[in-house]
Amino acid sequence: MKKILSIITIELTMLFMIMVSTAFAPKSSDEGYKVGDTATSFKLKNVDGKFVSPADYKSAKGFIVVFTCNTCPYSKLYESRIDALNLKYADKGYPVLAINSNDPVVQPGDSYDEMVKLAKSSKYSFPYLQDTSQEIAKSYGATKTPHVYVLEKQGADLKVAYIGAIDNNPREAKSADVFYVEDAVNSLLEGKPVKTTTTKAIGCTIKWKQA
Amino acid sequence: MKVSSLNYQKTLALTLFLILGAKLSTVSAQKVEVIQFDQLNTIITEKDAPIRVINFWATWCAPCIKELPQFEALYEKYKSQNMEVILVSMDFVENLDDKVKKFALKKSLKSKLYLLNETDYNSFIDKIDPTWSGAIPATLIVDSRKNKRIFFEKEFKEGELENSYLNFIK
Questions:
Q1: List of domains in chain A
Q2: Domain named Thioredoxin: which ranges (chain A) (predicted)?
Q3: Which of A63, B2, B75, B140 has its CA 20 to 30 A from that of A141?
Q4: B123 and A CB contact within 8 Å
Q5: CA A201 to CA A190: how far, in whole Å?
Q6: A-chain residues near B121 (CB < 8 A)
Q7: Does A38 contact chain B (CB < 8 Å)?
Q8: Following DSSP, what letter does each residue of A61-128 receive, concatenated?
Q9: What is the per-residue pLDDT across A149-188, written as a single tens digit (0 to 9) for each?
């Protein structure tokens, strides 16, 4: 009897472990949004301590949502280009909202305090938000930093218009000659269809919480 | 006195020679060739080549570095069986000397080393494998004689690489 009980206990434990591991498994890149999907809104803590949501931007036509972080070499290479995007497009209706979804336990350089420091020292002109639960990265299907989602407001909905890289040369801004995000936003501003709607975002994998 | 000093000098010279020699041979064993995608593609598609295990890594990628010893061990174990391991660094070319070569020397890497000097990833990534999202570590195993290839975008946990390799060559 004791034996049977212990077997049942083991089986139950295993079942529980399977459930837990499934529940916490990061979504694969096949999941998340595709172009044309309606993206979820969010409300995340900015480096100034206030919470920011796309809903706060009443006059925006859409958003350039950039999943990025402090620590990835690719994010560092794109830092000033992300800022330039915001300076160029915020007034035209497409502000940048940057989101850091890295788990600071796995990557201590991405703690909230470090985010505050970086945003200050680099004089970010855009909100730099912490996705503490990683739920936003998961629902968007973001896997890397930097990973961009251009969203267009259609009524109350945020429609995904572009997913991928910022341009075609991470290493050297001045050698880039295809500007995926700019091309997408320009098309949206002109009311034209976006030509290249999906590219592969190159960078570091988002550091997920360890289950 | 004179004799012993001469002997001492001889020994010193010989020691220096040996140290230098050893250093030179490790350096040459760990040279890193800078290539572009076309050259890499030639390596991938070359006919009647050994079975090739091609790992994409970078010095800044922690999980890549963690799994590198598995690639080195695989190479040591199977290199006599018509296979080779090729480590393709995705580091930027300006970090060739200060990062990649230094790292290769420190870890005494024995596998073949390349640095892929490409910046427009979207122009070649699908040609390596359409399912590759662009994240590293990533590994391609190619058997050109059997026209077979398999791609992994993941970090191999301990023992997983050898199992995957053995499954592939079955």
A1: 2-205 (3.40.30.10)
A2: 33-190
A3: B140
A4: yes
A5: 25
A6: 165, 168, 170, 200, 202
A7: no
A8: SEEEEEE--SS-HHHHHHHHHHHHHHHHHTTTT--EEEEE---TTT-GGGSHHHHHHHHHHTT-SS-E
A9: 999 999 999 999 999 999 999 999 999 999 999 999 999 9
